From TrEMBL:
Signal peptide: none annotated. InterPro entries: GIY-YIG_endonuc, GIY-YIG_endonuc_sf, UPF0213_domain. It comes from the Bacteria. It comes from Maribacter cobaltidurans. Pfam families: GIY-YIG. Belongs to the UPF0213 family. SMART domains: GIYc. PANTHER family: BSL5627 PROTEIN, UPF0213 PROTEIN YHBQ. This is Uncharacterized protein. Transmembrane segments: none annotated.
């Protein structure tokens, strides 16, 4: 069975990068070596692998990667730290349309 990984890297400038691959070790090494000078990571090396999760279906992995890419830095750190309580807090909608903010 094929394995796919969604991962989060921390760049040397504190930026977080989210990606998907079928070989986590190879991909992190490619990021470290800077094989592509047009890549987002190229000028932000060295990088550190903070988190990864394995999927058996590439479509699920891509879906989750796209979802994480939209998250705030704080929410990504909550995922990395396994802080489920903070993850739930940060997942709540905080805009004026949220039910907490509607007039009673």
């Amino acid at each position: 069975m094929k394995a796919y990984y969604v991962y989060i890297l921390e760049c040397n400038d504190g930026m977080l990068y989210t990606g998907v691959t079928n070989d986590i070790t190879r991909r992190v090494n490619e990021h470290q070596k800077g094989l592509n000078n047009t890549c987002f990571i190229f000028k932000r090396r060295p990088v550190k692998l903070l988190w990864h999760e394995m999927f058996n279906d590439i479509e699920q992995a891509i879906f989750f990667e796209k979802k994480i890419k939209k998250w705030s830095k704080a929410k990504k750190h909550a995922l990395v730290n396994g802080d489920e309580k903070m993850l739930r807090i940060l997942a709540e909608c905080r805009n004026a349309s949220h039910y907490d903010f509607r007039p009673k």
